[in-house]
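During the practical work, I selected for study one protein's amino acid sequence and its backbone structure tokens, as given directly below:
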Amino acid sequence: MTFEDYIKNPMGRQNAVFSKREMFHKHYVDILDKILVREGGKLDYVLYNNGDRYLIHFKIPSEVIEKFYYDTVIEFYPKEDLTKNHDSLNNYFVNFYSNDPSFVYTFAHAFIENDIFIKDLVSKMSNEAVKQVAKVKNPKNIVGYVKSIYFAYLIMKNRGLFKKQYFKTYGVNYNKKDLLNRIEHASVKVEKRKEAGELKNKKKKIEATKATNNKESVKNKDSVKSNKGIVQATKVVKNVLTSVTSKRIKNVKRK
């Protein structure tokens, strides 16, 4: 499939209607917009030229964890000799890789089975994902949307990165060892994401506890102030009563 085919229908059935496509598209566009605002519009990627093949390695920011990035790689290769002469990569076939947990736990094996996984990066995927179907999360072993891959598509579209000229002008010669060195193994990345998530949740709990304690402190202060007001008011009433009683007693004595 081409990258456009994947976006239109990740399952690859050309005649099938993927009814939720527009919903997914809007959802991913909205999320990416927020991420780019958070990142100040900055995105890291490296372009590679490999004969008639082209690769782009993105550091896709996590939606949830700040300053946490997934290695996402797209490989383009011509589906026929005529495609080689095109100025665009739109009609090129694609292979994918990502260490996004969604890809690792759910879709990696399906991508491998459907021959749309980058072969040079199999060593960077978890052994379980390579060898086994995701029986719980994807028992039918279908190809589906992966957020980091969808983001890569949107970024390429928005920044004109489907043009071969960008690769020829700014790309470097492909070196498998260099690419492998730039990519963190999927198992390591997933573990780091888990740890980062736990740390964030712990910080949230601490902040929530602090906020609760601050509210209680404010309530207690307000309660103390309120009680002081009652005490002062009571003293005033007592003083008034004492004064009135005193006057009455004096009047009685005069009689």
Notes: The beta strands are 44-50, 53-61, 69-77, 93-98, 172-173. DSSP finds eight helices and five strands in the chain.
